[in-house]
Amino acid sequence: MKAVVCTRYGGPEVLEFRDVPMPEPKAGEVRVKVMATSVTSGDSRLRAARFPAGMGLIARLVFGIRGPRQPIFGTEFAGVVDAIGADVRRFRPGDAVMAFPGGKMGCHAEYRCVAETGPIALKPDGLSFAKAATLCFGGSTALHFIDVAAVASGGRVLIVGASGAVGSALVQLACHRGAQVTAVCSARNADLVRGLGAEAVIDYATTDFLGDAGAYDVIFETVGSITTRAALPLLRPHGRFVAIAAGLPDMLATIGAPGRGGRRVIAGPATERPEHVQQLADMVAGGMLRPVVDGTYGFDDIAAAHAYVDTGRKRGSVAILLDPAARA
Ligand SMILES: NC(=O)c1ccc[n+]([C@@H]2O[C@H](COP(=O)([O-])OP(=O)(O)OC[C@H]3O[C@@H](n4cnc5c(N)ncnc54)[C@H](OP(=O)(O)O)[C@@H]3O)[C@@H](O)[C@H]2O)c1
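A: This is the predicted complex of the input protein with NAP.
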């Protein structure tokens, strides 16, 4: 089968198409023909070895010193089950599914095997493969941090980077919990985030919001534009600053310090839970969540998709179509 392989860190030009062995489903696994996948900020960061501040050495130890240890990127996909291993009960060949291998990656390929008890769910009817393939990276991250930050009904929540894959999911999930959401984004994305449920929108290019002392219960930071020191005064007592694009200073700040009035810093990788995939599918089917897809690229144009994601300016997610029918 055809796969996109990255054996050294660098620009989008390091990506190569290669023929790799077709995966065979083991007992308890399904093999899925990938109809669509995504290029996420995570794929872009890893390819470029553009790790958060102070995390370069740790990240290279985890992901590979000279080049990525897992050469096939892609954290999420949607497709059709084409083969099943022994003892599989939940799925049958022909089922339309969405899946989130997450940090294990390997989705920028024509086929991917997943354990039937793993991060996989039936694709909601009426949701295109392209949209289903872009739901989990931002959605699962948002589900994790919304829970850890204990976003509650009536709480005041600030979301910095509300127009990205993670931010657009956070806005919707926080609104669904009954929080009052203020979204920070550029003027071109104001209508998008209002449409997702934000009550107030701040254009970061024209408005300094760092003076809103004690205004928020929770701040989600998905860009890395606000330091912990600047964020803590914006929180009410016992408020939470969630540094999703955290560098080492934010990680160290999670340890806590006296004089913060119970204000906490939350940072670190989101926990990927298999049940998130079903939860996200159910939320879409129930009209509580809608995937935001910025644009689609053909599989052959995946390097161009990487170049676009590298800009850090995408709205929601970028889908890669392995089959043109995935768009519908
Ligand atoms: N901790 C974890 O487990 C975890 C998991 C997933 C992702 N992440 C990290 O979370 C971050 C966000 O990921 P993503 O996929 O959502 O990114 P993304 O889709 O690339 O989103 C970036 C968005 O932020 C906006 N933006 C840029 N500068 C801004 C600013 N100063 N203020 C407000 N908005 C701004 C951009 O639009 P404009 O340029 O038009 O403003 C764009 O829509 C990444 O650093 C990623 O690595 C962490």
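The pocket of NAP is lined by residues 40-42, 45, 138, 141, 160-161, 163-167, 184-186, 188-189, 204, 222-223, 225, 244-245, 269-270, 312-315 (CB under 6 Å). The chain has a mean pLDDT of 97.
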